[in-house]
Amino acid sequence: MPRLRLALGQTNPVVGDLAGNSHQILEAARRASAQGAHILAVGEMALSGYPIEDLASRPSFLSSCRDAVIDLAKRLQDEGLGELVVIVGHPDGPLQPRLLGTSNAPSAIAQNCASVLQHGHVKARYAKHHLPNYSVFDEYRIFIPGDELLVLRIKGVDVALIVCEDLWRDGGPVERVLEADAGLLVVINASPFERDKDEVRLPLVTRRATETGTIVAYVNIVGGQDDLIFDGDSVVVDAAGVILARAPQFREHLLVVDLDVAAATDSPLPPHVARVALEGGRPSDDTLEPDIAILPDDREQLWNALVLGLRDYVQKNGFGSVILGLSGGIDSSVCAAIAVDAIGADRVWGVSMPSRYSSGHSRSDADDLAERLGLHYSVEPIADLVLPVESQLKLTGTAAENVQARIRGIILMGLSNLRGHLVLTTGNKSELAVGYSTIYGDSAGGFAPIKDVPKTLVWQLARWRNQFAASRGEVPPIPENSITKPPSAELRPDQTDQDSLPDYEVLDAILDAYITRKLGRDDVIALGFDGETVDFITRLVDRAEWKRRQGAIGPKISEMAFGRDRRLPITYRPSLDVLPGAQTTAGGARS
Amino acid sequence: MPRLRLALGQTNPVVGDLAGNSHQILEAARRASAQGAHILAVGEMALSGYPIEDLASRPSFLSSCRDAVIDLAKRLQDEGLGELVVIVGHPDGPLQPRLLGTSNAPSAIAQNCASVLQHGHVKARYAKHHLPNYSVFDEYRIFIPGDELLVLRIKGVDVALIVCEDLWRDGGPVERVLEADAGLLVVINASPFERDKDEVRLPLVTRRATETGTIVAYVNIVGGQDDLIFDGDSVVVDAAGVILARAPQFREHLLVVDLDVAAATDSPLPPHVARVALEGGRPSDDTLEPDIAILPDDREQLWNALVLGLRDYVQKNGFGSVILGLSGGIDSSVCAAIAVDAIGADRVWGVSMPSRYSSGHSRSDADDLAERLGLHYSVEPIADLVLPVESQLKLTGTAAENVQARIRGIILMGLSNLRGHLVLTTGNKSELAVGYSTIYGDSAGGFAPIKDVPKTLVWQLARWRNQFAASRGEVPPIPENSITKPPSAELRPDQTDQDSLPDYEVLDAILDAYITRKLGRDDVIALGFDGETVDFITRLVDRAEWKRRQGAIGPKISEMAFGRDRRLPITYRPSLDVLPGAQTTAGGARS
Asked: Which ipTM was obtained for this model?
């Protein structure tokens, strides 16, 4: 069997930063070439970043991407890397607007493409067939589907090329790969991390490999992009379902592997399949031991995901540091530990903001945490700032409680505006889901590290992080008392969360049933929960939607700059649409 | 030619309020029947409200909608209205999840349907073919497209039935209507208002009528739903392109018209067209003069749209009143006038919140406005609340300026929490687009009446509203000085907007080119704008995205309760999914 040396480049692109992303790919190509690879594949949209959302409807952005592909091919050639076959993901356009299957979709002028570069030129291009349009994906909104299949003949073997969702679809392009007799299937992906995603993704890759009798090489991008985390976890599986190589999660990596691929046959091609012949590149004599990463357990994966999500949001938006309130409670403690793991204690500012209702342990637990983590720490009592507001407006009850939270928001935003910190807001998924937060108060901030972590899981992660530290002989970062004490907002005397909410085990189970599993009221009760509790919780969830969004609704009378009819990434460098090197600064200051 | 009496019911549904929406349809049926109509058609999704977004992926919600259709048919029969043919829009499901054209779309379990009710039963059902998936529409995400056409034979004529986008699509179902020889085409719609939409919509209806030689009856829902405003403007056009009847914009209406329709032929049906025979109903002897509404000019339409958008957001979310800051400037003055027009002066609270930098005219113009409008008015000076924060945190420059805006936000939210007002935030589109606002400060609030109105248009609307009042012998609501003085945030001495922004005429023109027309930097400059100005403005727009959203980004690790992977209306009554009569209260209070 002919032998191919394949490199998979797990790069971490920034949406819109075509120059920076090209540089990452070029660097991967240098290393792949130095290791004697014949082919380098990088992820879906590795050149533009992913998801680009409605940037795909801007002709100038698409032209810049097209230019960047051509430029990348030239630069590879100029650096003497022309022999290497480089497969790169990018949006292609602007194309003639095409009516899609079931609507006028007037904005679709782009395709989601994989281009094949060699000898300074674009030798072939494949456009993704299957455009996901559920959950976080909006591709059928912005892309025109492709309908041709591509096979590359190189060193006597046929290599088929598809993009992400094409692999997931039964009866999709993968079946035609089988008809075309390709020996290797390369799939480029931008597949976001989710809990237990590896329990779905790897079995799929394995099944496709064994079904088609083809080696499957799956390359994914890595990195945080707004609320998505791409985990990498690139993998190569042979036709028997054996993992030949696997990249680590959550970091950039070049995975290089030798593959013995079935020789190409000259059977006639099925319809709509193009075959492009490429030169073979120099042979490699050495033998190579590929990496086979082993995934850590669920909690370690989650922790790493949250750390990467925070780190990349900070870095890609150009912040130097973060600031957060430290209440001594579990949520802010876990957020602080994530922040320190992500960007280092010298870039994390913690502020204790005790009120007249704060317990002694709030302050001492916050002090303890700050010392364990070694972050910058200050104390700003709020009583003298809250009282004038309460008394001038004669506020009582909930209205007065909220002033405390909002004054804390003003303090953090004020220090952010003064020194450029990104403000972290520390709410967990359970309390956000039921609306237990003060809008413009504790919910103020640009990034919410545990926004999607239910309270019960926050505790588990805290325990895991402490054990992990202990197992390495380090000081456990989170004070034991923050983990074990009953949670409280401390906005009035002796308040605890369980005054008005069920136990978090019950709450999280109901939220899972109602939100994630989309069960109706009766079906949630049928799981064994108390009817009154279910009614109470589901009603809170339905009511809290506006508070979670915070941004005000307003009547639409034209193409809006924002909101429902314009979807844009938050983190992106619009460099080629606008200014060279321009950079998003998602700060809170009045410009 | 046989004569049919057709009623078009322009109802104002609330998303999720199946009982209330059914009641509206029943009431329209009573009136249609009393006027001798044979057919009543109400709008797309008139039973469920529109858009339902990801509620369409909840089986329990869909089951409730299905039950509500059956229940409506029975109630019509029980009330002696069984003879009337009622065409009603609703989501149908839960269906077997179907793989859509180009993705796995695992969440689509519903269709966007029009059901035909008579004699207590659902006699026929049509599922929308063309699912818009651009701009504000997400239908291809949540619905399965239909592929059958429906013709109703009644009183010797054939009536074809389609839904909204089906009419817009060249080569769509409309062409098959022609083949099926229907004499009347009924199109039910949920078509949102946009500036100049009537310049597109009416010509389309007219073109389809003349192309197909068929009378086209177009019925639209009316009402505000979050950021969308449905304007009604239901219309009937004959095969010669003549308007036979037209409903007024922006309010509920029953449009009844007699139609002389070409008699049905017995030509064979094209494939995939079902014909359902219905009984004819009693004949009408009287003759009837249909309404033919005339649209007012652009500014009056816009004003009415903004008034309706605010009124319905307040009513549908169960608020009793609104509160807003009155600065004496044009934006807050226009918002206050809209609010008074929408819900009456006795439900509008204005607060003047002067700082040490506020000019004399800020206070006097606000006083003048309050008196002209007759709203509730109070003054809350902020100096004593701002100074303690500034001095404790040692804030200067922009950081200190923002404290003023945020203390004002705390005041409005505090009074909202105390008394239940909805807070209005008064920013215009131009300043929101470039990020000229303080996050958690002047941008705090649940509804932004002029969020999509560029500054230059705000002035035009103010002038129009004053002229309109004068033409009716009423006091012009907006002080002349608020219209003519230079705009300023007044956060430092002698500040004006034009210290840091170009003239609003230039700014609005650049925003229109960059945002609405999606031009790139070079193309904007080619329109004749100064390069430095264009670079400055486009960079501000790109940077301001996060501030406009306000809600914090956070890493996603599962199905989220909120954000990118779950799209829900803000205004909705989840009554049948959860609790009878439950009602959203989009307030800001900690529950």
From this structure: 0.94
